[in-house]
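Protein in question kept in full:
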Amino acid sequence: MVKGYTVGEAAEMVGLTAHTLRWYEQEGLVEPVERDSAGRRRYCDDDIGWLRLLIRLRTTGMPVREMRRYAEMVRAGDSSLNDRLQLFLEHRERVLARIAELQQDLTMLDLKISVYGEMARAHQQAAV
């Protein structure tokens, strides 16, 4: 009998749906998962780690086509190390640009919070 996590258990562990895990496999983002004698998927700890990496890449805005390309490069072995490095360097630059945008957004929110806080205090004092 094959040990490991069911699709439902794996989905819960990584915060995705079982449907999404199956889709990841169908799209080539995940290598075909080992199956038990009844044909049910059984995820191992390495599969869970890989899924968590894919989730981080997706969360940071990496398009699925690049994630698929990355998965293909990993499967190709060490001959793709430079390409993987380049992919991550380019993605890192996009993440840093997004962080800078978010920092500007946060600065604007902080300004509005400050202005409205002062206005609310002034309004309360005028009412007294």
